[in-house]
Q: What sequence folds into this?
């Protein structure tokens, strides 16, 4: 009995040592992120953003989830139209991302975190902000700069977003293959995992990878056009079209710019691939006294990661197979359907179309990461099992109970992700004559009127945030 | 034996926690010293660009003939920031125009302060507080003959071993009357940063 207390004492000393310098705090080790964020998301759903900000769990700057907390706060500040504070928080997050990219190849503190993760769970590892979240960070940051009439600042953010997407494309190619091999080497098979792990196919939908964000490309093209860099805009519209080939508004923009820039090769290609409705329009529609209104509509809130418990067959070092229960993160396998914004103008009605589904990107990203998560999980099980055996040897039943209790309490899935992001984003673009217009829009089941000023050959950007019954709007004359 | 283990663990914990705290010291440094805190645009880059550009402009034979008998009047249009960093380009143009003024060969009009000047002249003319005979009248300023403008562009590349950033600064001088570009030059800067192999 005395011996067990000594063991416990040492264990209790070791844990703060592991979490002392750079790893996560205790709350992260023993409760999962989605539970911590529940109240925040409830308040956000009701449109009470100040309340939501006050509910975000406070973390110290050495906490592994510190940058994630900043992201959540910055996003809510953005929704609350508190652009200055939002800009500062995003900027700080960006600095943290930069720092983590500049870190040494071998980092000792990372090793300590990994040991802590093996002893407890994945929440002990510092949160690595995935590429799609980084691209959204820069998109919001661009809008923050825009709200302060700083187009050149917004363009800097747009370029940063493009760098993120480029590096994601490079990094993605060889990652997935390697991680699948590692899981097989650990003595578990992908089959047994895929049989038990909840399917996310419906949530993923048609998304091909978890990082290419057409919305970011679209926003960047829009801002390039505002800065009269039509060629840059054209390239980004093309990238967006590759991801969303059926979006009619994208097709129109490509067709318009291809003609303005006299891209003869592209024009003949697009004449075949784009819909006839788009290509029959005359090329020089932009010459007359017209401007454009562009709607960017954010719908809902992205779903939170959930904890799925499953039992996996794993071969132990003695060669026998045993079933172990593990907790893995997953997303609900469904997509919320949002009725798109409808705009009525001069008797004709126009409907917004989807440009990104963040829920699908998040689910795809998780699916790609799964082999690595499972590999770590297996290492953890083996380690915890060894500790249990040692404690049984030294402390008999009491040791066994203590070890089992510890294992149950610490078996938590890593459900961290930027969870205040919108679920999906839609766009709508319309040519209007210069001057002031009152537009009738139908959104979220409510009819609304919006007054926009259109300047000749310029864009007027209207951003709408619809969450639950809340509809917030901002208008920028680009 | 056990006491030893506990003592060892505690001292390890103390060392680890001690590593997190360190004292900060304030001291003065050389403003023109080479600064390599990180790979982003810094004071050394700004000084290099401003220095090289003014030298090139003042030494160019074209500018020599322009400034032979007169001091041409210039205005600085903004430098377009085309990099992926938030750089205060006004600070670059400030350095360049200050150096040019100091050379005594050029004169400048400051477009950034037009509104303030207008406000002051209106005060002198209309407020009734300034002696009308001594107030500065409207319509007596001199217009610029030349425009100085440019671009700052960058290419950023990085992989798992190192990051590389390349800056190119282009500056041009345009004759406003004829529209001819009388002078142009560019400065390039390359910086690389290799990742440390091991760190805490």
A:
């Amino acid at each position: 009995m005395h011996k067990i207390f000594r063991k416990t004492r040492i264990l209790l000393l070791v844990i703060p040592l592991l979490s002392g310098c750079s790893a996560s705090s205790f709350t992260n080790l023993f409760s999962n992120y989605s539970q911590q964020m529940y109240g925040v998301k409830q308040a956000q759903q009701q449109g009470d953003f100040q309340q939501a900000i006050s509910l975000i769990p406070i973390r110290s700057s050495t906490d592994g989830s510190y940058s994630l907390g900043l992201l959540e706060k910055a996003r809510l500040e953005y929704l609350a139209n508190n652009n200055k504070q939002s800009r500062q928080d995003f900027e700080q997050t960006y600095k943290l991302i930069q720092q983590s990219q500049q870190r040494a190849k071998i980092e000792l503190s990372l090793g300590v975190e990994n040991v802590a993760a093996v002893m407890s769970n994945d929440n002990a590892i510092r949160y690595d902000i995935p590429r799609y979240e980084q691209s959204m960070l820069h998109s919001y940051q661009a809008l923050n700069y825009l709200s302060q009439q700083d187009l050149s600042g917004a363009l800097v953010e747009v370029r940063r977003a493009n760098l993120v997407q480029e590096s994601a494309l490079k990094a993605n190619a060889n990652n997935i293959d390697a991680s699948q091999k590692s899981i097989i080497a650990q003595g578990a098979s992908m089959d047994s995992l895929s049989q038990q792990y909840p399917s996310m196919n419906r949530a993923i939908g048609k998304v091909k990878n978890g990082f290419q964000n057409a919305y970011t490309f679209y926003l960047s093209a829009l801002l390039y056009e505002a800065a009269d860099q039509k060629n840059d805009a054209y390239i980004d519209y093309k990238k967006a079209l590759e991801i969303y080939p059926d979006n009619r508004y994208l097709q129109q923009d490509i067709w318009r710019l291809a003609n303005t820039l006299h891209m003869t090769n592209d024009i003949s290609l697009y004449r075949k691939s784009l819909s006839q409705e788009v290509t029959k329009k005359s090329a020089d529609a932009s010459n007359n006294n017209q401007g454009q209104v562009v709607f960017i509509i954010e719908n809902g809130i992205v779903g939170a990661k959930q904890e799925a418990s499953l039992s996996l067959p794993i071969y132990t070092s003695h060669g026998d197979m045993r079933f172990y229960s593990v907790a893995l993160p997953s997303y609900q396998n469904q997509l919320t359907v949002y009725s798109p914004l409808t705009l009525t103008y001069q008797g004709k009605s126009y409907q917004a179309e989807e440009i990104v589904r963040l829920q699908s990107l998040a689910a795809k990203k998780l699916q790609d990461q799964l082999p690595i998560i499972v590999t770590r999980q297996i290492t953890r099980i083996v380690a915890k099992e060894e500790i249990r055996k040692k404690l049984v040897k030294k402390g008999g039943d009491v040791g066994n109970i203590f070890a089992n209790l510890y294992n149950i309490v610490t078996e938590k899935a890593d459900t961290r992700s930027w969870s205040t992001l919108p679920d999906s984003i839609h766009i709508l673009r319309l040519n209007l004559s210069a001057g002031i217009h009152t537009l009738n829009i139908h959104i979220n089941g409510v009819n609304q009127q919006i007054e926009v000023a259109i300047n000749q050959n310029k864009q007027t950007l209207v951003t709408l945030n619809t969450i639950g019954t809340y509809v917030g709007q901002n208008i920028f004359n680009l | 034996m056990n006491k030893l283990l506990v003592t060892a663990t505690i001292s390890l914990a103390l060392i680890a926690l001690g590593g997190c705290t360190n004292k900060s010291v304030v001291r003065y440094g050389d403003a023109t010293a080479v600064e390599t805190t990180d790979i982003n645009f810094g004071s050394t880059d700004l000084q290099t660009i401003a220095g090289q550009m003014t030298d090139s402009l003042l030494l160019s034979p074209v500018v020599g003939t322009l400034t032979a008998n007169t001091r041409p009047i210039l205005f600085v249009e903004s430098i377009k920031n085309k990099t992926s960093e938030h750089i205060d380009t006004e600070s670059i143009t400030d350095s360049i125009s200050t150096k040019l003024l100091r050379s005594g060969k050029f004169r400048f009009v400051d477009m950034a302060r037009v509104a303030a000047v207008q406000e002051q002249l209106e005060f002198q003319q209309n407020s009734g507080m300034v002696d009308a005979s001594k107030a500065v009248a409207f319509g007596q300023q001199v217009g610029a003959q030349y425009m100085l403008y440019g671009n700052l562009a960058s290419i950023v590349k990085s992989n798992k071993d190192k990051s590389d950033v390349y800056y190119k600064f282009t500056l041009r001088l345009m004759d406003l009357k004829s529209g001819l570009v009388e002078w142009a030059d560019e400065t390039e800067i390359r910086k690389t940063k290799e990742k440390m192999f091991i760190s805490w």
